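Q: I'm writing up a methods section and want to include an example of the input and output format. Could you take the sequence below and give the corresponding predicted structure tokens, formatted cleanly so I can copy it straight into the document?
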Amino acid sequence: MGKGSATPGGGNEQICPEARIRSGRKRDMPTLRLPRLASAELPKPFGCYPFLLYLYRKYMNEMENHPVILSVAGSDCSGGAGIQADMKTISALGGYAATAITAITVQNTWGVAAVHPVPADVVRGQIEAVMDDLKPSAVKIGMIYDADMVGTIAACLRKYRPAHVVYDPVMVSTSGKRLMTEEAVGRVKQELLPLTTLVTPNLHEAEILSGETAEGLQEMREVARKLADTYHTSVLIKGGHLPGDKAFDLLRASGTTLGYEQPKIESRNLHGTGCTLSSAIATYLARECSLQDSVRQAKDYITRSILAAKELNIGHGNGPLWHFHK
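A: Here is the clean output for your methods example:
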């Protein structure tokens, strides 16, 4: 046996770490300092073991920093838009994505071939299951195909009263496929719009909802004001389809109109931009940002998502964004 530390008795007996602790000699041992935490409210074994309590509290605190956002929308099997784009966006921005699927679409980067609505009672069941358990901080609504489904979703919103509701009125796909019936549009205006925090139509959708044309900035302002005043909500009109090399968006909120202008980005990968923007806004609202800050940060996020996707080679048509950029 090798030479050990001298003991008080003068021998060469080795002293193990436990012996050092017992004898008060702790200089060779690392010290773990834990905060003093109350444990009375927790069941055993947490109340008996402060370190387990510390880990539990740390875990719960981390979970609280990831708000739940419920996306009520259609499924895109190609992954570029709809529920799939929402889940990627919410996750990339630090939220937890829950879903209620309203329709199964058959589509790819070339376009939408078919739409198969999910029965309204199944949509209700999905929403109630999430709301009763996960308690989402915000709800993002996308594609709603028929009138019965509009009524079902509106009834759920009245029942649960979520703090934030962002509605992206998906009515016609980029390829021209109609994604909402005429009757559904009427019920959206009557029942759903008054329950929203923010509505995010593009120019064509804003015209359908308002019954007015919006072919220039002044008309966009009038349409935004009309929608906001009529339905007592905030409105973000996306003007990316206006002619010219600049993209103009208008936010009407609390009686004020704000404009956002930036250069258009030329890219073949723009599939799912509306879904991404609306779910990003919902996520920032769930993280307790103001509406204006949520819109600003969401627009910055989608700009970076478009730029990050410019060199993507996914599909042969209108490709997706890249949501997980740095």
